[in-house]
Amino acid sequence: MAANVAKALVDVPDFLRLGLMLALERRPTEPRGRAVFLQVRDIARQRTAEVVRELFPDLAEADVQILTGYALAGADGLFVHREINGDAVDLVAVFELHARLLFDAAPVCRPRPLSERPPAAFASIVGTH
User: Is the separation of the CB atoms in 89 and 81 below 8 Å?
Assistant: First the structure.
């Protein structure tokens, strides 16, 4: 799935490029293109959530939504990274990495209270000591 999404973005980047610009813009009267982009994005969010539920049937719905939002935000960031750096970024490879990391994160996606201190190496990354 990740490789297919990345290939589609490489082949036809204009939809996401223009959609993100419209989504970030705030106007008194929103253009129709923004509404269409947000509808398509909601469909992508729903499909991603379905995949998460299928892969992790025991995951609480709140965690499914956290992981889904994180997946889409990460995909947006990877796309922007490719747009800025061009062909130097192997979008298929970074999307596959993103998918593997999401899969690994699913069992622990619920943020833990600060009282449950993470291992020291992780704490240095997230800033909780």
Answer: yes
